[in-house]
Design a protein that fits this description.
It comes from Ferirhizobium litorale. The protein is of the alpha+beta class. The protein is built from nine helices and 20 strands. Helix 3 crosses helix 4, helix 3 packs parallel to helix 5 and helix 4 packs across helix 5. Bound molecules: adenosine-5'-triphosphate (ATP).
Length: 344
C-alpha cells in the first residue's frame, strides 16, 4: 500500500510538533524515520496510524484520503518499543488476538485463526513456542511475537516505533537482519522509527532524516551519507569535521588564510568533511592543526587536532595513515579531498 503524506502540520496546544511535512512512501518500501529526540518521528508515525489527527494536511492510503479514518479502518499493524504482550495469554493467543476481537462478520473461524497463528509463528521462527507465556521468552523472542501479532490482521502498513530499542546490541543486530529478511519475504509497506543511524542506514530502502518537526532529507543510505543536503544531515549522519570559512575570489579561506580549496560561491559558510576524506600535504595552501591526542584504528589513526589561531582554535578529528607523524604537539597539514559547504 502506498502512503502519501501531504503538507501535514501537527500542533499540541499550539506547540508545532510537525511543520508542513510531505512524504511519499512507495508500496512495499521499508522506510526509516531517523532523527534526534523530539524531532517528530513518533508523531509522524502516530499520524499515519490514525492514533493522532493532523492539525492541517492529509494522509492518503493509495488514492484514498485516510485523514479521518480510525485506526481500525486504516488496518495498520503497530509495534512499540515496549512490546506490550498480554502476560496472561500464551504466545499463540497473543498472536491471534487481533483476529479474535474482530466483529463476528469478519472474524475467521477458530480453526482458521489457529492455522494463521501457526503460520505466523513459523514466519517469525518461533514454532514450538506457542504454548509459552511472555515471561518465558527472551526479549528478542517477545519482540518477534509482537511483530507476528501486528501481522496477524494482515495490515496494509506495518508501523514500528523503536522496535528494538529495549534490546541489547547483539539481539538488536540479529533482529535487524531478521526484519529485513522478513520484510523482503512479505513485501509489506513498513515504516520504522529509530534514533540509531546505523540501524536506519543498514535496514531501510530510504531514510527520512528529521529535525525539529521537519524533514531534512529523504534518500537511500548512500544519498544521505554521501550527498547530505544540509549542515544538519552532514553532522547528524556519520562522523564529520566542520570549520567556519569565508569564500571570496574563487577560494575558501579559514581565519583569513586560503586553504587550497576552490569555490564559485561567496560569503561566510560552514565547511564540512569526513575524517577519512583528507590528504596530508607539505606544500601549498592547506589547513594546519596541532595534535592534541591520537588513537589507533585497524588500518589508520585518528588524530585529534586544534586547527586555527590560539584562542580561536577548532577541535576536529581527522584520519591519518599509520606512518604519519601524529605525536602530541606535532603539526599536521592537510586538505579535505571531499567536502561540502553550507552558507552560514
Ligand atoms: P523521541 O525519539 O524522543 O521519541 P520523537 O522524534 O519521536 O522523539 P515526538 O515524540 O514525535 O518526537 O515529539 C515531537 C515533539 O512534540 C516533542 O517536542 C514532544 O514534546 C511534542 N509532543 C509529542 N506528543 C505530545 C503530546 N501528546 N502533547 C504535547 N506535546 C507532545
Amino acid at each position: 500500500m502506498e502512503v502519501t503524506i501531504s503538507n501535514i502540520r501537527k500542533e499540541f496546544d499550539l506547540y508545532p510538533a510537525l511543520h508542513d511535512v510531505s512524504l511519499n512512501i512507495r508500496s512495499g518500501e521499508l522506510i526509516a524515520l531517523l532523527g534526534p529526540s523530539g524531532s517528530g518521528k513518533t508523531t509522524l508515525l502516530r499520524l499515519i496510524a490514525g492514533l493522532e489527527h493532523p492539525t492541517a494536511g492529509q494522509i492518503f492510503f493509495g488514492n484514498e484520503d485516510a485523514s479521518n479514518r480510525t485506526v481500525q479502518e486504516r488496518n495498520v499493524g503497530f509495534v512499540f518499543q515496549h512490546y506490550a504482550l498480554f502476560r496472561h495469554m500464551t504466545v499463540a493467543d497473543n498472536i491471534a488476538f487481533g483476529l479474535t476481537v474482530r466483529p463476528r462478520a469478519t472474524r475467521p473461524a477458530k480453526a482458521e485463526i489457529r492455522r494463521r497463528a501457526a503460520e505466523l509463528l513459523d514466519m517469525v521462527h518461533l514454532s514450538g513456542l506457542e504454548k509459552r507465556y511472555p515471561n518465558q521468552l527472551s526479549g528478542g523472542q517477545r519482540q518477534r511475537v509482537a511483530l507476528a501479532r501486528a501481522m496477524a490482521i494482515e495490515p496494509k502498513v506495518l508501523l514500528l516505533d523503536e522496535p528494538f530499542g529495549a534490546l541489547d546490541a547483539q539481539v538488536r543486530k540479529e533482529l535487524r537482519r531478521w526484519l529485513r529478511e522478513f520484510h523482503d519475504r512479505t513485501g509489506h509497506t513498513t515504516v520504522f522509527v529509530t534514533h540509531d543511524q546505523e540501524e536506519a542506514l543498514e535496514l531501510a530502502d530510504r531514510v527520512v532524516v528529521m529535525s525539529q518537526g521537519k524533514i531534512e532529507q529523504v534518500g537511500s543510505a548512500d544519498d544521505v551519507y554521501d550527498t547530505p543536503n544540509s549542515a544538519f544531515v552532514f553532522s547528524f549522519i556519520g562522523s564529520s569535521a566542520s570549520l567556519p570559512v569565508e569564500r571570496r575570489d574563487g577560494m575558501v579561506f579559514f581565519q583569513d588564510q586560503p586553504i587550497g580549496l576552490a569555490t564559485d560561491a561567496t560569503g561566510p559558510a560552514q565547511l564540512f568533511f569526513r575524517p577519512q576524506d583528507v590528504a596530508l600535504t607539505s606544500e601549498g595552501a592547506a589547513l594546519s592543526g596541532k595534535v592534541t591526542a591520537s588513537r589507533r584504528l585497524a588500518g589508520a589513526r585518528i588524530a585529534e587536532i586544534d586547527v586555527g589561531n590560539d584562542g580561536n582554535a577548532h577541535h576536529i578529528e581527522i584520519e591519518v595513515p599509520l606512518d604519519a607523524v601524529a605525536t602530541l604537539g606535532s603539526e599536521i597539514r592537510f586538505r579535505p579531498t571531499r567536502w561540502e559547504q553550507f552558507a552560514s
